[in-house]
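Entry type: protein chain
Record version: 2
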Amino acid sequence: MEFMKRVYDLVGKYKQIIVVSLSNVSSSQVQSIRRIIYKGKGTLIVGKNTLIRKAIQMRSDKDLPKQFEDFRKLGKQIAELSALIPLIRGKVGLILTEESVFELKPRIEANKLQAAAKLGAIAPVDVIIPPGTTGMDPSQISFFHALSISTKIDKGMIAITKDYHVCFAG
């Protein structure tokens, strides 16, 4: 109930509400993003999507159920907020700020880190294996031949001779 009150209150206080995807974002990255946003006089809300949607729906509707009547004291109804409800799906967060999106985005994107691929993840970029030594001994060369990756033996190790495109973005 307290979380819903907080969301209900905050969505009416800020003029910018940005829905961001948090898939493949670590908790330490979320904390550093919170610090960046806080310095720019804003906040990041991450929580149960059903509670966030309910709070936004109550803020956008005229009629509130009786048990939520005390929410009305936090601010008046804002009908335009209902456009956010379909966007709150999956791992998302809400950035609430007074700052311009164009000033905030580069500061947040500066926290991007490359991460190892996980099973079932969708590739955000093309994955290419560059040429060079692999650190594997020549007895494992059959692995590369099975994948049609051109190799050579260099100083007792398998070396890939040209770029190999593993997968495409998406």
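Comment: The chain has two domains: 2-109, 127-167.
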